[in-house]
Amino acid sequence: MPTEPETVIAKHIVNWLVSQKWDVYQEVQIRTYGPVADIVAVIGNLVWVIECKKSLSLNVMEQAYHWRRYANFISIAVERRKGSASRFFAEQVLRKFKIGMLAVSTKPQATSVHEMLEAPLNRKATTISIKEKLLPVHKTFADAGNSEGKRWTPFQQTSINILHEVKKRPGITMTELMDKVKHHYSASSTARSCISQWAQKGVIKGVCVKREGRLIKLYPTE
Predict the structure, then answer these.
(1) Which residue in 129, 72, 91, 106 sits closest to 2, CA to CA?
(2) What is the per-residue pLDDT across 88-138, written as a single tens digit (0 to 9) for each?
(3) Helix (H, G, I), strand (E, B) or coil at 14
(4) Residue 187 and residue 184: Cα distance in Å, rounded?
(5) Could you give the 3-state DSSP secondary structure of residue 88?
(6) Is the model's pTM score more than 0.70?
(7) CB 71 within 8 A of CB 130
(8) Domains and CATH numbers, the chain
(9) Which of 99, 95, 88 is nearest to 61 (CA)?
């Protein structure tokens, strides 16, 4: 299967960022039904979000624009091409909305990344919303820019956290679990209802549910 253009571009960006000592995370989602950032790079207290596409378009601009409140820098990364009147106009739009642009040359003998437009620093960004969601698994689980929708989701992490607690305390009740487990749900009542439902349906791997009187208890799958 041929490599996807966006994945190739993203891989060059990842390597370029790593060479400059940024910690790089791929396919990051900060809300269950929210957008997914192709690349989130962190160095010190600074966060940089980069959206990758083969060509410059309003679509990739809009994707990058979404992150303006959450990142100190936002950029798009596209394949390097000759300039045109439409590209000149697009660059004016990017400047207006404080979005940077990286141009990637993908020629086998001359791969390179050029920062065509430097992303302005946004000191007012609330970066904690992204930082608290970043996990080591985001570095390697999925390639940035993949078209399969592959990514490490908040639900997957919640499921791992649940299995960890259940293994530590076999027979833990839902009430006890809510006091122990870190989950992605906005409210404990929602978490309790959803976790009970998904556990009983076998969606949360490695966990089984048993009713003991009025209590619902969770055990590791034997």
Answers:
(1) 106
(2) 888 899 999 999 999 998 776 667 899 999 999 999 999 998 998 898 988
(3) helix
(4) 9
(5) helix
(6) yes
(7) yes
(8) 5-139 (3.40.1350), 154-220 (1.10.10)
(9) 99
